[in-house]
Structures are given as C-alpha cells and as structure tokens.
Amino acid sequence: MARYVDALEQARWTIKIVTGLAAAALLVAGFAVMGWRAAPKDLDIHIPPDLSAGATIHAGRREVPSPNVYTFAFYIWQQLNRWSKNGQQDYGDQIYKLQAFFTPSCREQLIDDQKIRADQGELDQRTRTVTEIPGLGYRDERVVSLADGSWAVMIDTQIQETSRGVPVKDAYIRYPLHIVRYDVDRERNPWQLALDCFRGRPERLDPKAVEVSRSSDGSMVKNTDAYANKSLGDGGVDVNDLPPTAAGPAATPASAAPSTTSQSAAAVRQPLPSSLAPAVLPRPVN
User: Which of 122, 133, 191, 217 is the most exposed place for a label (fewest CB within 10 A)?
Assistant: First the structure.
C-alpha cells in the first residue's frame, strides 16, 4: 500500500514542478512580448562615407559623424543653388522641395532673398551651379561641434552663373553653414538634420590661394582679408549672398578647433534664431 501512496505523491510532485515551469515559461514569454512591443521600430545608423579603414557604428545613438554632417550641409546647399533653367522659377521650386531640411527662420530668410532677387530682376533667365572645389572637400577641421549640439560647417565652393546664356559669375566662395538637429518628420527628413543658414559671413576666396591649397595638402584655404572683403564692383561677393546681421552671443565650440582652423573659425559668429515647428510653404506660382 505504501508503494502506491509514494507513487501518488511522486506524481503530484511532478505535476507541481511541471506547472511551475509552465508558469515561469509563460511569465518569461510575457516579458519577451512586452519588450518586443516596446522596442523601437526604427534605428538611426550613421555610416561614415569612408570605410576603407573600418569604422565603429552605433545603432540608435544620437552621435552624428562629422563626415555625415559635412555631406548633408554640402548636398542641401548645392541642391538649393541648382538653377538649371531659370532662377525666377527654379529658386522658389528648390526652396519648396527642400523645405523639410531648413529651419523655419532659415526658410523665411531664403524666401525673402528670393523675393528681393526677383523684384530686382536678378533671377530672370539666370542659371546657377555650386560645386565643390576639387581637392578641397571634407576635412575634420571643416566641421566644428558647438556647445548646443549643432555644428558649424565650412564649405569651399565654386559658383558659376549665366544670364540668358552669358556667363556673369565664376568665383570661389566659402560658406559658413549652420547645421542643427531637426527631429520633426522622419518621412520627409530621414537625416534628422536641418540647415539653419549661415553662422558668419560668406567670403570670396583668392583663386591664387585656392590653387596653392589644392596643389599642396588640400588644407583650408588661407585667404586674405583684403581679397575676401572686395566690393562687388571689384569682383567681390554679391551682397545678396550675405546673411543679415545676427544678434546674440556666439555659441562656444564643444571642443577647441585645431590650430589650422583658427582663422576660418573666426568667421563663425552669431547663430540665427531658429524654431523647430514644422511649416508648409505654398507651391510657387508658374
């Protein structure tokens, strides 16, 4: 009789163990489902353009590599200034197409600039292209991280313009662009960055200094103030290419810039005010 009693107790003990294991498995499965539902559906992965030496990539982190910031800044600026047929129409079209990549304050500044140029007849039948000067592309010193989490980006470009088929401008211009984080609409702006127009004054680059820089190590062009500040009559920068004077203290870089950029970093001055509220422009009228 005792043998049957022991067998019954053993069966009951086995049932309790199995029941406990089943409950534990259900609990673990429940936590797994909760974790799966709470997991992000999208991950931000910033891949540096140059992978020849390898790279460490962090998924889901907010760090943006400097080469990516530079690439974004140059690409958006180049597209904005691409007037292939008629600046009267193309300039407004480009602002409209790229509006998700501008801060509202920068967008308004561009709209005002477009209106002023149109009223003065500067856009009619005008074409424009902005290209990177060969040999003077990305370098670490061209991107300065600022204390507020934004970036100052220096791009050296060649601007070529024609009016009714006649060349009217061919100059080297340095643009100090301001790039900020812009987490607004991932469908329209997957980069989550935005152009906040200028952080300083664009300047004309001496062609001789450009050639010296290109023929040596491709470092930042060492320009002269006398050449950079030439008047328009002497072939200087068009006044409409310059931003309005900004107010407020200059932001402090998060880290000191390399010694090779002390002169160029001096051009990084006041930030333009910005808001991250999304807005939609009316489509330009043909």
Answer: 217
d(CA 202, CA 57): 34
* Amino acid symbol at 131: T
Return the exposure string of 169-205: e unless at least 16 CB atoms fall within 10 Å of the residue's CB, then b: eebbbbbbbbbbbbeeeeeebebbbbbbbbbbbbbbb
Residue pointed to by tokens 């974790």: 35
Total residues belonging to the chain: 286
Mean pLDDT of each 10-residue bin along the chain, 286 residues long: 68 86 90 77 63 58 82 95 93 94 94 92 92 90 91 94 90 93 84 90 88 84 76 50 40 40 34 33 40
Residues 144, 257 contacting (CB under 8 angstroms): yes
Element (H, E) at 145: strand 143-145
The answer to whether 176 and 201 have CB atoms below 8 angstroms apart is: yes
Q: Give the pLDDT score at 48.
A: 64
Which residues, 6+ apart, have CB-to-CB distance to 49 below 8 Å? 67, 68, 71, 138
pLDDT at 258: 37
Choosing among 3.10.450.230, 3.40.50.2300, 3.30.428.10, 3.40.50.2000, the CATH entry for 66-265 is 3.10.450.230
Q: What is the pLDDT of residue 269?
A: 31
What is the pLDDT, as a whole number, of residue 110? Answer: 94
The residues spanned by each domain of the chain are: 66-265
**Phi, psi dihedrals of residue 158, rounded to the nearest 5°:** -110, 125
